[in-house]
Amino acid sequence: MAEYSKTEAMDWARENLRGQWSTLMTPFTENDEIDEDGLRRDIRHVKSLGTKGAGCTWGMGEFWTLTKEERLKVYDIVSDEAGNDWATGAHVSHTSMKEMLDLARYSEHAGFDLLIVAAPYFATRTEDQVVQWVNKLAENTNLAIMYYNSPQFGTVLDANGLDRVCDIPNVVGVKEASFNPEISVDTHLKVGTKAIISTPDEWIFHKGKELGFEQQVMFANTSDWRFDTPDANYYVQYIDKVMEGNLDNEFYDSKVKPIKEVSDKWWKYTVQKMGGALPASLCKYWGELMGMSGGHVRAPLTDLTDNEKQQLKDDIAAVTIT
C-alpha cells in the first residue's frame, strides 16, 4: 500500500512506476464465478517473473462483464495477495460517476497504490467531457491516477488533450494505448517532462532514443506472463535493461523478438476476428500454456477454437527460447 499524500502523488509515481507492470486477467470457474484460487496463483506467478506491479479489472480483465460485487471481490483478492511488497493499480472506469467514485473509494480503502481510468464510454464525445470527468475523480481520491487513452472506450485524445488531463492534480500520467504512433510520440514530446507517459509496446524505446525522450515504465501489458517463465524471464530482463539506459538490441533480437513476432501475428488475427475488441481469449489461452489459470472469456467475446488453440500452441513451441 502506497504511503503518500495527494500532493506527493507525482513524486511517488516518479519513484515507483518503473520497469515492467503487468495486466491481470480475471479467471472464472467452470460455473462462471470468480476463480479466487486461480487469481491468487496468477498473482504469485507474475510476481515470480520479476514484474514490478500489476493492474486488475483492466481491459484484459474483462471489467465490462463483471458486476460491481465481482469487481470489488477482485480488488480484495488482488490487494490481499499482492501484500505490501508489490504495487497494484485498480481500474475504475465506468459510465456512472457515482459508481466510478465508489470503486475509487473502495480501492483506496483496500490498499491499492493507484487508479487507472478511461473516458466514460458510450456518451463521451468531447475532450472537455473527458477532462471534467477525470477532474471529478481526482477531486474525490487521494491516490495517483493514470489516464488510459484507448479506442476501446470510444474516445481518443491527442497530445493536447492528454496535456490538459495531466494538468489535473494527482493525475500522474497516461497509458497511451491509442495504437496511433503519432499520438504516442507527440504525447511523449509534449507531456513527458511533467507526467509519466507509457506506450505499452517496445517500439517506443527506439523512437525515444531517436527523438530524445525516455519511458520509465511499461504500464502495462501481458507480455511478461505470455513470454516469460520464472527461469527465463527475458522480457522482464529486457525492460529492466532499457530502464537502466541499455537498449540492448542483440538481447531483444535473440531473446524476445521471436516470441513477439508470434504475438503480433496472433494479436492482429484475433483483433480482426473479434471486430476490433481486445483479444482477451488469445491472452487467456496463451497464459494457460504458460502456467496461468486461463479458462474461458465471457460473452460477447468468444474463446479460440480448438484448431486455433493448436495452431497457437505450435507457433509458441516453435520459438520457445531457453
Helix content: 40-55%
Count of structural domains: 1
Q: Mind summarizing the main beta sheet?
A: 8 strands, parallel
Topology pattern, helix = H, strand = E: HEHEHEHEHEHEHEHEHHHHHH
Portion in beta strands? 5-15%
Runs with pLDDT <50, length 5+? none
The CATH architecture name reads Alpha-Beta Barrel
Shape: globular
CATH topology: TIM Barrel
CATH superfamily (homologous) name: Aldolase class I
Q: Summary?
A:
The chain is of the alpha/beta class and 322 residues long. 48% of the residues lie in helices and 12% in strands.
How would you describe this protein?
The protein has 322 residues and is α/β, with parallel strands linked by helices. The chain has one domain (6-248): Aldolase class I (TIM Barrel, Alpha-Beta Barrel), CATH 3.20.20.70. It contains 14 helices and eight strands. It has an eight-stranded parallel beta sheet with strand order 7-6-5-4-3-2-1-8, sandwiched between helices. α2 packs across α3 (68-82) and α7 crosses α8. It starts with 8 loop residues before the first helix and ends with a helix.
